[in-house]
Write a structure and sequence with these properties.
Helix content is 33%, strand content 24%. The strands form 4 sheets. Strands 8, 12, 13, 16, 17, 18, 19, 20 and 21 form a 9-stranded mixed β-sheet that branches. It is elongated and about 90 Å long. It has 16 helices and 21 strands. The protein is an alpha+beta fold and 510 residues long. The chain binds one RNA strand of 72 nucleotides through helix 1, strand 1, strand 2, strand 3 and helix 5.
Length: 510
RNA sequence: GGGCCCUUAGCUCAGCGGUAGAGCAGCGGCCUUUUAAGCCGUUGGCCGCGGGUUCAAAUCCCGCAGGGCCCA
């Protein structure tokens, strides 16, 4: 596969196009000019003169304007002594109309050597064709860049998913929706930054390489620092560092950056993924909920244009307020299970065994409640729903509920059947925190290699005084999936992780 | 990790024991308002890789690689 990508291998297409390049040089052209002649962007012209009734051909010609636009040649339709071509720039298209009698030398010869995929700049007045399409009547052509390899098929685009991910640039060129999705992702992320800054949060950066990976339960990637001769871990979460900043006196901080978790791939998981975490001194879980609703419904409205957006077969409403449900109530409702059975350890264990949950005999009741929730409820939570009152075993960094120390003041937001956000009233009692870490270490000794490691410096920071604090993480990739109706996380990550097609050169050297 | 499926021309796909096919793209013609332009002609293939079965394998069997979907 991907033979066309093999660099500089002899290839029918490359050879012919290299010959054309020589012919262009022979015409005396600078075939790799340093700058494009351009007075307007294609999007700009397409927008201003979009309305065919407001801008009929006579009126366009009456403007007496000359525009220069640059773009990649997407299609060429040759009609004897005239040629139509579509140029594309930034996802927008504009037609160029060449007539042999109109084009100044050596324009017509250049045209004969033009291929789909090349870049050109064209100059001329605007016009509208018989069929009403806005076009540039080309008087002058500037050749900008030769594509030596052909574009994917113009009608079907690039379909092969493997090649779409491996050669994302081809996917972006030939599948218009893909470029739109990633442009939208960019707008969503900048919308998030605007919102957070508007709420008084400061963006900070904390270590991606950590000596002790903390803040989440997950297997880390490990790497090595040569000069210090030490192991380092790619972070699984920034949490413990952001909290140190709260200790240090920041009131509100957020970070949007990559986390790395050494786990499998799926339509919802990529080993590196983007997360926003934020912390606000003096606040609690209720404040995090309100902010989350404001943020997400605001993004739906302001970036996507509606609080109700399509998601597969079923639209999702991001209108406030989102539904709230305790973990146990969610199990009861979606699993059609008598609520009272969830209050008793033996019956919880029996329910877990009934649905074949692994090690159901050995796990704690709280852990089993988490498993039952995942089994019965998670996939069914399509509309945004805050799940609250998590078992303490699943939440080593969270304050307990008032009056019930088996459960903690935490929510996870589920949407489209996915975990989208996770928030706590942060644990700030250093003695309690030390005990929770010890419980995690015991779990680790018992064989759970995802259990948290003790970070003594973090505990020390709490001992210097940590205010009450609300904290939350929001999965940015999943948020983009939801807002753009993308079924796979690979459709919202530009370069998802792929196995190499053959051993890389660095590996061969080692 | 388990199950199912895919891999054939640059791209999109047929073909499923008997000489390797189509559309688009390319190349050569015709055509001065086309838009999946049209018409005539034409080049292009380690049928993912390696074994096997067979007189004969793209096609059947086994293994490997890469990918996809579902489940855990």
């Amino acid at each position: 596969m991907i033979r066309a990508g093999a660099p500089m291998q002899p290839n029918q297409y490359r050879d012919i196009r290299l010959e054309k390049l020589d012919k262009l040089k022979a015409l005396g052209l600078d075939v790799w000019p340093r700058k494009a002649k351009r007075t307007h962007g294609i999007a700009q012209l397409a927008e201003i003169y979009a309305d065919a009734e407001a801008w009929p051909n006579e009126k366009l010609e009456g403007l007496g304007m000359t525009a220069s636009v640059m773009g990649r040649v997407l299609t060429i339709r040759e009609m004897g002594k005239s040629v139509f071509a579509h140029l594309t720039e930034n996802g927008e298209k504009l037609q160029a109309f060449f007539r042999k009698d109109d084009v100044a030398e050596p324009g017509w010869d250049v045209l004969k050597l033009l291929d789909m995929g090349d870049f050109v700049s064209v100059t001329g007045p605007l016009m509208r064709t018989k069929t009403g399409e806005l076009s540039v009547r080309v008087k002058e052509v500037q050749f900008l860049s030769k594509a030596l390899l052909p574009l994917p098929e113009k009608w079907h685009g690039l379909q092969d998913k493997e090649q779409r991910y491996r050669q994302r640039y081809l996917d972006l060129i030939s599948n218009g929706d893909v470029l739109k999705t990633f442009q939208t992702r960019s707008r969503i992320v900048s919308g998030i930054r605007r919102f957070m800054e508007g709420q008084g949060y400061l963006e900070v950066e904390t270590p991606m390489m950590q000596p002790i990976p903390g803040g989440a339960t997950a297997r880390p990637f490990i790497t090595h620092h040569n000069a210090l001769d030490m192991s380092l871990y790619l972070r699984i979460a920034p949490e413990l560092y952001l909290k140190r900043l709260i200790v240090g006196g920041f009131e509100k901080v957020f970070e949007i950056n990559r986390n790395f978790r050494n786990e499998g791939l799926s339509v919802r998981h990529n080993p590196e993924f983007t997360m926003m975490e934020f912390y606000a001194a003096g606040q609690d879980l209720r404040d995090m909920m309100a902010l989350t609703e404001d943020l997400i419904s605001g993004l739906a409205r302001d970036v996507m244009g509606s609080e109700t957006l399509p998601w597969g077969e079923q639209p999702i409403s991001y209108a406030k307020p989102f539904r709230r449900l305790t973990l146990k109530d969610a199990i009861a409702e979606y699993g059609h299970i008598d609520r009272h059975l969830l209050e008793d350890g033996d019956s919880v264990r029996a329910l877990a065994k009934a649905v074949h949950i692994e090690d159901a005999g050995a796990k704690t009741v709280g852990t089993l409640l988490g498993d039952l929730f995942e089994h019965h409820a998670e996939k069914q939570l399509i509309q945004p729903t805050f799940i609250t009152d998590y078992p303490i075993e699943l939440s080593p960094l969270t304050k307990t509920l008032e009056g019930d120390d088996r459960f903690v003041d935490r929510f996870e937001l589920f949407t489209g059947g996915m975990e989208l956000a996770n928030a706590y009233s942060e644990l700030n009692d250093p003695v309690d925190q030390m005990g929770r870490f010890q419980a995690q270490m015991a779990e680790r000794d018992a064989g759970n290699d995802e259990a948290m490691l003790l970070d003594m410096d973090f505990v020390t920071s709490l001992e210097h005084g940590f205010p009450p604090c609300g904290g939350e993480g929001i999965g940015i990739d999943r948020l983009v999936m939801l807002l753009t109706n993308s079924a796979s996380i690979r459709d919202v990550i530009l370069f998802p992780l792929m196995r190499p097609t053959k051993p890389s050169e660095t590996e061969e050297k080692e």
